[in-house]
Amino acid sequence: MSQHPLVEALREFAPYVHAHHGRTFVLSIPGEALLREGRRALIYDIALLRSLGVRIVLVHGARPQIEARLQAEQCHCEVVDGLRVTSTAAMTSVAAAVGAVRMELEALLSTGVASSPMGGARIEVTGGNWVVARPVGIRQGVDFQHTGEVRRINVAPIQAALDRGAIALLSPAGYSPTGEAFNLLAEEVALKAAVALRADKLVYLHPEPSAATPNQWSLATAREQLAHTPDDALFRAAVEAAEAGVPRVHVVSAQSDGALLTELYTRDGIGRMIAADGYDAARPARIDDVGGILQLIEPLERRGVLVPRSREQLELDIHHFLVMTRDNMVIGCCALMPYPEERMGEIACIVVHPDYQREGRADMLLRQAEERARSEGLERVMALTTHTPHWFVEHGFTQADVSSLPVQKQALYNLQRNSKVFIKTL
Q1: Which CDD domains match (predicted)?
Q2: How confident is the model at residue 114, as a pLDDT?
């Protein structure tokens, strides 16, 4: 009998509650998200993150609110290369719009309505002159006046606010040491804050509905994707953040109800994520990976695809394994068993979890196993298979006789399995 869906949900998100507790997340919320009817649910979800122990720096935008204020006051501002030229008169409108958005956010985060998800919660929201800015200046002959860029983030007061459990609220405005105020891009404020605070995650919320398929990319893959969409300013900021060292950068819909929580508390999420350290890169296996490897390979052992391995044998051989993990779950593995006297290694136990197949992970495992073989001075690798001969041929292996195997491996060859032998010269 299957468990209640709630039980399964609790089991899935509980590890993330533990993993995220005490971590620093910078969330960038666009002004468009605060104009839609579902804004209360989104803000409640952000407050829920804080109640689960996440240290939150919330950066809000105000682009549509500024546009509306400027139109109402009949104040025209030129936009050049995506930057608004902010005159002294326009800066007054900008300040009013940003202040109004900030007040609304503070009010929503203070809501303790019994029927809301945050009923009874007491969450402090605080802010200050924490963003030091400088003027953009004159570019290509255009004086941007009060349009600025982030010079630095004052980290100490933000850390102090986070230490006492408050949500630190940053606006798209900054101040110079001489007392001038500047209109800033919220995306840049979020990026600079995440880097300065050494945040664990930077989450860019965007005003569009969720994409049909979530994506998790390495930094290299994200750069390639950006080359095809150079006008995607938000994704460009996400890539820049990853390049600056933020470990995980997420781009998530602010319009789809629950998307933020789904992205952060489920294994595959619902948005786009860039991992600065290579999300799916294989690493050497550790002894605490044994249980995960066993769960991965046992279904194939029962079907006769793999030769059964005992836990004891796996523990002895664990230093020969590479693993791919997704949030501490082993989703792929591969072993390289060396035969140094023959300068040959055996590629064995290439397995990828069914949910993560057809995305090139087996290819990546093979490549990294081959790189390890080269680093160990091996000249050839071999593989024995009963089910995937064509895959090995596609990856440069050629079929060989059992007599081509190392002597020690020949002695262990199972005639009943009648595995085909494939060899590749490195």
Answers
A1: AAK_NAGS-ABP, NAT_SF
A2: 47
Gap between the Cα atoms of 137 and 13, Å rounded: 47
> At a CB cut-off of 8 Å and minimum separation 6, what does 27 contact?
46, 56, 57, 58, 59, 190, 203, 205, 260
Contact 275, 50 (CB under 8 A): no
Structure tokens at 15: 């590890």
Give 10-residue mean pLDDT values along the chain (426 residues): 72 82 96 89 90 94 94 87 88 94 90 55 86 92 91 96 95 93 95 95 88 69 83 87 91 90 86 75 88 92 86 92 85 93 93 82 90 92 90 92 89 82 93
CATH architecture, range 283-425 = 3-Layer(aba) Sandwich (3.40)
Helix (H, G, I), strand (E, B) or coil at 63: helix
Distance, CA of 251 to CA of 263 (rounded, Å): 9
pTM over 0.90? The answer is: no
Phi-psi region of 74 (alpha: psi -120 to 50; beta: other; left: phi over 0): left
The alpha carbon dihedral of 241, 246, 249, 255 has a sign of negative
Per-domain residue ranges for the chain? Answer: 5-275, 283-425
Q: How far apart are CA 398 and CA 71, in angstroms?
A: 71
> Rounded to 10 degrees, what is the CA torsion of 49, 51, 56, 59?
70
Question: At 30, is the secondary structure helix, strand, or coil?
Answer: coil
Sheet-wide strand order for 55-60: 125-126, 167-170, 55-60, 24-29, 201-206, 248-253, 272-275, 215-218
**Domain spanning 5-275: CATH 3.40.1160.10:** yes
